[in-house]
Design brief:
- This protein folds into 3 domains: about 120 residues, Acyl-CoA dehydrogenase/oxidase, N-terminal domain (Butyryl-Coa Dehydrogenase, subunit A, domain 1, Orthogonal Bundle); about 110 residues, Butyryl-CoA Dehydrogenase, subunit A, domain 2, CATH 2.40.110; about 140 residues, Butyryl-CoA Dehydrogenase, subunit A, domain 3.
- The chain is built from 11 helices and 11 strands.
- A hairpin with a 2-residue loop joins strand 6 and strand 7.
- By secondary structure, the chain is an alpha+beta fold.
- This is Acyl-CoA dehydrogenase family protein.
Length: about 400
């Protein structure tokens, strides 16, 4: 009997089909070719210099809107998409965010809630990476409580054909400064509505956010809407209320469940290799009990988190995945991945803070992933409500 693969200690690969393993391998090769040689430099400079080139590479691979059907989208399974997210985030959380925001937020919103005209106009170009989208929900003063958003959309005129006029601000928006289209959520007299906003519309601007110490290989922006005038048909017609944006967030959170394990795997692999080479007191530090305890604990959490992601992926493909189960996955996997990365840093010692290794980059990135798409506190309360039947959000 062959010894287990140290990066797959319990043999999770046995639960994947040959096609799923092939998809994972193809995404890993793409990341090795177009991301890995440059990502440390992008992180250090705080720039992602060729976002459109990357988007076209990912579009050609079928990674944009990967799990959506029609309109140029590949229509692949949830598990296929999850495995892709794992490989993308093993490269960098910012790269996975580029793909997640495009496919699971902006494209999903249009695909699920948009008109046929919206779908025909935007989805084929977005699937190909020829158009980039962003998703405007979070505001400077309102993150976890989107129902209190201040962005407003009002009718200007009479009847169903009246224009919409949007005013407000959105914050921490991935892809904002490079987007061709923004899906923006705003308060209206009818409740929260979504709007498809071409970013060349007068009154729309998206200044970049600088001085980040996390997700530095990612474009992050503020969206400014000053009297943005849109035609009547710019509104997403199929949804009113928070059901719209929250359904999109669940799609993105699902990808994070997998992606976090990619970051954890990258750091675990770096720590394992380093421990075998680093000599102290006359032998590799891998030969010391305390180092082996760290490596064993990291491997256990990587195995359990990946199993959880796969289980939830199978449920999603079967149509039985509940939003509370997505919260379980996001809460557990990001929290444990961050702990794996921090432990890896201790094994690398001072080298753990160098961008010669991926560890500090993943650590910093996961501090953002821990917060976005629902904080630890919010997902804890979702799980708590599911367990007890009592909402404790207020």
């Amino acid at each position: 009997m062959a010894a287990p693969d140290p990066l797959d200690l319990i043999g999770i690969d046995d639960q994947l089909s040959a096609e799923e393993r092939d998809i994972r391998a193809a995404v890993r090769r793409l990341c090795d070719d177009v991301v890995a040689p440059h990502v440390a430099e992008w992180f250090e400079s705080g720039e992602l210099p060729d976002v459109r080139g990357l988007a076209k590479e990912f579009g050609a691979m079928g990674l944009l809107g990967m799990h959506l059907e029609g309109y140029g989208c590949p229509g692949m399974s949830a598990v296929d998409y999850g495995l892709a997210c794992l490989e993308l985030e093993a490269a960098d959380s910012g790269i996975r965010s580029l793909v997640s925001v495009q496919g699971s937020l902006a494209m999903f919103a249009i695909h699920r809630w948009g008109s046929e005209e919206h779908k025909q106009q935007w989805l084929p170009a977005m699937a190909a990476g020829e158009a980039i989208g962003c998703f405007g929900l979070t505001e400077p003063d309102h993150g976890s409580d989107p129902d209190s958003m201040r962005t407003r959309a009002r009718r200007d005129g009479s009847g169903d054909g009246a224009d919409w006029v949007l005013d407000g601000r959105k914050m921490w928006i991935t892809n904002g400064s490079v987007a061709d289209v923004a899906v923006v959520w705003a308060q209206t007299e009818e409740g929260v509505r979504g709007f498809v906003v071409p970013t060349d519309t007068p009154g729309f601007s998206a200044p970049r956010i600088h001085h980040k110490m996390s997700l530095r290989a990612s474009v992050t922006s503020e969206l400014v809407l000053d009297g943005v005038r849109l035609p009547a048909d710019a509104v997403l017609p199929e949804v009113t209320g928070l059901k719209g944006p929250l359904s999109c967030l669940n799609e993105a959170r699902y990808g994070i469940i997998w992606g976090a394990m990619g970051a954890a795997r990258s750091c675990f692999a770096a720590a394992l290799d380093y421990s075998k080479d680093r000599q102290q007191f006359g032998k590799p530090i891998a030969g010391f009990q305390l180092t082996q305890q760290k490596l064993a604990d990291m491997s256990l959490e990587l195995s359990k988190g990946t199993l959880l992601a796969l289980h939830l992926g199978r449920r999603k493909d079967a149509g039985t995945l509940h939003p509370a189960q997505v919260s379980v996955g996001k809460l557990n996997n990001v929290r444990e991945a961050l702990d794996v990365c921090r432990t890896a840093r201790t094994i690398l010692g001072a080298n753990g803070i160098s961008l010669e290794y991926p560890v500090i980059r993943h650590m910093n990135n996961l501090e953002s992933v821990l917060t976005y798409e629902g904080t630890v506190e919010m997902h804890t309360l979702v799980v708590g409500q599911t367990l007890t039947g009592h909402a404790a959000f207020r």
